[in-house]
Amino acid sequence: MSYAHTFYTTLALSTLLLSGCGGGSSDTTTEDLTPTEVTQGENRTFYLDTSSSGETTTATLRTISSDISTKFGNKTLNIWVSNDSFDSGLGCQKSKCVTQEMVDALAQTFLQDGDDNDVYDWVTNIFGEEWGADAQKDNSNFIGETNSIDILLTDIDDDNTPNGGVIGYFWSKDNYKSSVVSGSNERIMFYVDAVMFANGDTDDTWSINDMWPKEMVSTLAHEFQHMIHFYEKTIPLNESSDIWLNEMLSETVEDVIATKIEHTGPRGVDYEVGSAGESGNTLGRYPLFNDNNTLSLTQWGNTLADYSTVNAFGAFLTRNYGGAQVLHDILYSDKTDERAVEESTNQSFGTLLQEWGEAVILSSVENPDTLPTYNFGDFLDVDYNNITYNLGSINFYNYSPTPYFYEGSSFDATIQAHANAYYRIGEDLSGDVDIDLTLDDGVKAMLIAISGSSVSTEALESASYTVSLEDHSDLYVLLTNTNASSNSNTTVTNNAKYVAKQTKVAKEVVKPSPILPTPSHITQFNAQLIAK
Fold it and tell me: Which region among 118-127, 177-186, 364-373 has the lowest average model confidence (pLDDT)?
């Protein structure tokens, strides 16, 4: 199973889960294949494919962090650099060369003495240990217990590109004995692109806090979840999780630890800023999410837009359903699809999808009462296992592009499976607005009205409605397809005069008591709002 984290290119994933559980393998012994002791400065050949006859690289062990105390016992980190990518004083064969200073900085960031001060602590605190003796007990094809993690810095894809491509990956082939997978390096290891890692913000300087090195650190956290996921979930269940679910956990852990690694993270906002930042933001995951916010959450297309989508959903879960705890619970659920999320939140998946869409529409509103939200106006601090994680606020309207809305007098479109569609009837409306809804089975609709500092929401069904607006309001219909595998057709029409897009910021929200439609389906909005 290979998980690649990329910029500007499509991400790749392949599955490698070989049989052998319960002694079913032809190799019935539980030989201890703990990786042998290594010495700094030694060379070895690494296999870059599943076959020993495939591509290889020769690398030198440049640093060893030995016997570092963690909650899972002492751990050792080995960092190898391909010889063609390392600068020993005479340059190297690549456009950017890794130095010893860079290797040492990466080692300190990933694993060092002390508690709550490195990527290893922050990620394992949520998800658990990366490898142990239980793996070989479950499947004799695996290597034995080891307390070592290896990182190989190499020019992934041999593209010599410092500004894009595959940043790094975890590949479970290396967890197997080489007698089973000939291309196994028989190590618990990551692959990281050496050229991008060596790319500082200027030609003459380099710091672990520069853009590309910091992105590498965030990527290691992402890939670390995949590594742990394989050991703690895939192996015990003998079943791979849905790709979208696994990627959601990895994407979300990047958000959860962004302030700790001092990175802008998926929000694209300075790590010291807890608010939703400034308008016009083109950084992070959410400009791409805004431009593709009708994409199916669960039907994985292996594009960067899919990563942005699962990231946005994961950020919604952590801010509304328990922070790091919900990520832990999803991983340790015995379900490998959306049922793991349902079990961990005690909500139906359809309800979660609709609440997610509601939170997107209302993300410009700070601190909404009882409503799903991304925006607290500051950091949301969540404690888990004695570590505090700081979740920054998100306002999707602060990104460029802003969220995509269907607009005009009618909406007649196909909504993807497990997806939302956002229909803006108009802004700054008043008076009566007639709405006709035709919904396929499994499609849920919610009417959302925002007027100054007030918000009102109500679930709708296929019917004709008249919405009476006493105050000038922005009016939306959120459409949610709760079907898991089928797209749905939905039609909405209205008689509202289209008003050009305006900037609206509501500062406070009150959710009124439930409003029941009258027999003629007339719903009063705003008139029944309770003043705060």
Answer: 364-373
Question: Two tokens at 407?
Answer: 């607009």
Model pLDDT for residues 27-76, shown as the tens digit of each residue: 333 344 456 689 999 999 999 999 999 999 999 999 999 999 999 999 99
Token look-up 């005479």 returns: 90
- On whether the CB atoms of residues 403 and 392 are closer than 8 A, the answer is no
DSSP per position, 337-375: SHHHHHHHHTS-HHHHHHHHHHHHHTTTSSS-SSS--S-
Q: If we measure between CA atoms, which residue out of 468, 476, 471 comes closest to residue 521?
A: 468
Pinpoint the residues of the chain covered by CATH 2.60.120: 405-525
- Give the separation between CA 456 and CA 513, rounded to whole angstroms: 9
Given a cut of 60, whether residue 518 has pLDDT beyond it is no
Question: pLDDT-based confidence at 502, cuts 50/70/90?
Answer: very low
Question: What is the fold of 405-525?
Answer: Jelly Rolls (2.60.120)
Q: Is residue 521 exposed (0-12), middle (13-18) or buried (19+ Cβ within 10 Å)?
A: middle
State pTM to two decimals.
Answer: 0.89
How many C-beta atoms lie closer than 10 Å to residue 66's C-beta? 12
The answer to whether residues 518 and 388 touch, using CB atoms and an 8 Å cutoff, is no
Collapsed DSSP state (helix, strand, coil) of residue 122: helix
Q: With helix as H, strand as E and coil as C, how does 57-112 read?
A: EEEEEEEEEEEEEECCEEEEEEEEEEHHHECCCCCCCCCCCECHHHHHHHHHHHCC
Alpha helices in 164-232, H assignment, sequence order: 194-197, 211-229
Checking 211-215 for CB contacts under 8 A at 24+ apart, the result is 212/162, 212/163, 213/102, 213/105, 213/106, 214/261, 214/262, 214/263, 215/7, 215/167, 215/263
Backbone φ, ψ for residue 62 (5° rounding): -100, -20
DSSP annotation of 530: P
**pLDDT surpasses 50 at 513:** no
E-only strand ranges, 322-462: 380-384, 387-391, 406-407, 410-415, 419-439, 443-451, 454-460
